[in-house]
Each structure stands twice: as C-alpha cells, then as structure tokens.
Amino acid sequence: MSEEPETFTKEEVEAQIEAKETELNTQFKEKEDAFTTEITELKENMAGLDDKDKNFAALRKAKEKAEQDRISLESSFDDKLSTFKKGLLEDKITQAINKVAGNDTEQFKKVKHYFDNFKGDIATDADITEKVNNAAILAGNRVMPQGIGSGFSSGIGSAPVPNTNTVGKLKDPGSRNVAAMLGITDEKLKEHKAI
C-alpha cells in the first residue's frame, strides 16, 4: 500500500467522538431554542386577541411544524453521529488488515475480501482482531504479527504465537467445516494455499 492510513489511539478516538457529539448537541440546542422562541411568540400574539378571534388552528399548525422540525433535527444528529462512528470503525478495520497484510496490496485485498464475507456485528476491538485474524488465515497468511489489535485498543492481549509449520493451513476438519459454512469451497482454499 502506498499510503499509510492515519492511526488513532483510543483516547484520540474518544476525544473525536466527544467533540463531534458536543458540536452536534450545540447545533441541536440552537435550533431547538429557535423553535421554542417561535412557539412562545405565537402564543403571546394569540393571547392578545379576543377569545372569538383566536386562531387555534394556526397555533396548532405552528406547534406541529416546530415539533416536526425538532424531530427532523434529532434524526439528522443521530445520522451524522452514526456516520462519524462508522468511519472510525472502518479506519480501525483498515489499520488491522494493514498490520496483517504488511505492504502487500494483493494480500490486503484477500484479507479484506474474507473479512467482508464474515457475518455478525463488530462491537469491540476484540471482534475486529478476531475477524481479521480469521480472514488472514483464510487468505493464506504464513506469519501473523503479534498484537494485531494493540495499536488501537487497550485491553487486548497479543495474538497467539502461531506454529509456523501450520499457519495458514486448515488441517483440522473443524476449520474446514467452518470455511464451508462461510461458503468457501475447497477449490478456493487450495487456490489461496490454505489446505
């Protein structure tokens, strides 16, 4: 790979998330305050009129519009925060795959292909490490670096030291059954020298 991805510590990632949440909360609060002010002004204007002249329909309509705007703003905030977090997760995944693949572009593509085909959600850095390790084995990696997840997470131990005689090889039937359950045929395993 010609360009090294930017790496972040856990503290930097948390600081970025907190800064983005603060920014979006401030925007949300400003718009919510504007809507509240608008509703208050409408109510004050209506209070000066005689009972028979009050237009409750207009007041109700303005209130509903302000409520819809508030809901839309909350949804927008949630979408922006979700997109930001997804981007950080993709950076962590790319970083972990780069550690496994080294500077080999083809190996990166193979590991990324197998990683993308795994099912299930990624909730923690340990999930990323486990899936990247499994994808690397399926992609035929011969040597797995120690501590794949240690660059972007605390609390994750080093990866086990592989037996270099069998790393990348799916010798036991259990591993081959798992590969089959993932839809990986024996031909694909042979093609990537995993058996």
What does this structure look like?
The protein has 195 residues and is an all-alpha fold. It has two domains: 79 residues; 90 residues, no CATH class. Helix content is 65%, strand content 0%. It contains six helices and no strands.
Q: Can you give me a brief rundown of this structure?
A:
With 195 residues, the protein is mostly helical. It has helices at 10-47, 56-101, 105-117, 125-138, 173-181, 186-191. It has two domains: 10-88; 102-191, no CATH class.
Count structural domains: 2
Q: State the shape.
A: elongated
The sequence of SSEs as H and E is HHHHHH
Total count of helical runs of at least 4 residues: 6
Low-confidence stretches: 143-158, 161-167
Tell me how many strands there are: 0
Could you describe the largest sheet, including whether it forms a barrel? none
Structural category is: mainly alpha
Determine Rg (CA atoms, Å): 27 Å
Q: CA-to-CA gap between the ends?
A: 27 Å
How would you state the average pLDDT, rounded? 76
Strand content bin: under 5%
Helix content: 55-70%
